[in-house]
Amino acid sequence: MTVALVGLTAIQFYWVQSAIEIKEQQFGENVGSVLHTVVYNIEKIEAANYIKNHNLNGRVPADMSALLIDITAPGDSCCFNLTNVNTKKEGISYYVTADGQTIRRDRKEILKQCFNDRQYAQINKTHKVDFPNNAGQKASMVSEIINDLMNMQNLRVEDRIDPEIVRLLLEEELNRVGISTAVNFGVVSKVDGVLLKEKDAVDKELIQSIYKIKMFPGEFSLYPSYLSIYFPREKGFLLQSMSGVVAISILFIATIVFVFWYSLNVILQQKKLAIVKNDFINNMTHELKTPISTISLACEVLKDRDIPKNEERLEHYVDVINEENKRLGTLVENVLQSAVWDRPDFKLQKIELDIHQIIQSVVARYEVQLEACEGQVMVDYKAEDSMLEADRVHFANAISNLIDNAIKYSKEKPIIHISTKNVESGMAISISDNGIGIAKDDQKKIFEKLYRVHTGNLHDVKGFGLGLSYVKAIVDQHQGEIQVKSQLGEGSTFVLFIPKNQNHEHRKN
Prior knowledge:
Elements: H1 2-53, E1 92-97, E2 102-106, H2 107-124, H3 135-153, H4 157-160, H5 163-176, E3 184-189, E4 193-198, H6 203-208, E5 211-214, E6 225-230, H7 234-241, H8 243-303, H9 311-341, E7 350-354, H10 355-365, H11 367-372, E8 376-381, E9 387-391, H12 392-408, E10 415-423, E11 426-432, H13 440-443, H14 467-477, E12 481-486, E13 492-499
Parallel strand pairs: 8-10
Antiparallel strand pairs: 1-2, 1-4, 3-4, 3-6, 5-6, 7-9, 10-11, 11-13, 12-13
């Protein structure tokens, strides 16, 4: 079972780990797609601005398109629709260049400029410019454009791109692919380090980030610059996006562990019950065998004609048979009582009783036994109202079991104190002895059925472990409580609390 638990748990962890790896791979692919789209749009914006600034709002001739980016919306200097980004967000952003200068950008102004540029593009989209047909003039224009493009490559990165536009493009594309966590970006170079970044971005993170892409991929450069981004809370975002999967896995693992624990607990309980049952059967066999053997031996003596018999000897053998028969009856009665109170339909026959009279009658039963061991019972009736609803037979048996235990577990002359007192809602009955006491660990278990305090290899005290469990059952049936206070070698005190008013119908005696 343990191997199965470990195996299932390992499979769950492997499955979760695989799911995380797939999610990370998907995240990386989405980020790569975002970066590719962003740098492509940056190139389009730069080319569109060039066309606008040079009044080339018509479609560029085919033989010149290689010099510029393939522009699908000529004249549109933004070339993105801002459908997934929060265009209502306003505020000031700050960016830092390689030489430490701070660039201040107002998003509201950027969005206004984008809107105006789109309006400009719509107005001039159909406008045609007459390009020169003369080959020399066309070559001159091409040469001029080439020179302009070459000069653009030598410009600083902050002169070629607007960082707030880059931020808008990133937000647009990240929202499109469902990535809603915080992101920092910058432009880095393998030679010059960080060229441009957001003010809060960390240089080390930008340089070491795995999410990079070449800026202006249509250009050739010995020392290209790269758009680099990183996500400060990437792990948290991935785990949050997998919260459902992780929650199901945790629930499944918890269920497996609970089932394992429950099964193991049931097995241990069954094993414990099996041991207790075997001890009970062995003890009961031994207890029943002794009086049966004694009665059998006495009967054989009586039947043997060769053994002289006088009246005194006959009376002695009859007394032996009678005592052992009573002992057998007591043992059988204990077992039968155990069977009776375990029945679900077991009910007490409660009537109004004088508890002091019940205690007095029980104490009278043990007078001969106490005289034989030179013991005594001291009674202190402090309860002014001694009337309670109780079952006469079972309540008397419960008191009897406690007195019997006090006698059996006393190493010296047993001294038993019984006292009663009225409490707020009933009566408290205390029975104390000067016996061997009960260890703290055993005090939690003595009311369990068939449990007996271990005494090593000594079995000088006979019993089945039913007495205290019977007392507890009877007290519970009276809706009361039982407590024990004991220390090894200093005796024990059992306190029974029986409430005055119990939720049942009763008959008055």
